[in-house]
Amino acid sequence: MIRGVALVLSVLSLFIFPHSVSAVLILASALLLPFSGLALGLIAEALYFSPGAHFLPVWALFGALATSAALLVHRFVKTRIIE
Question: What is the pTM of this model?
Answer without folding.
Answer: 0.77
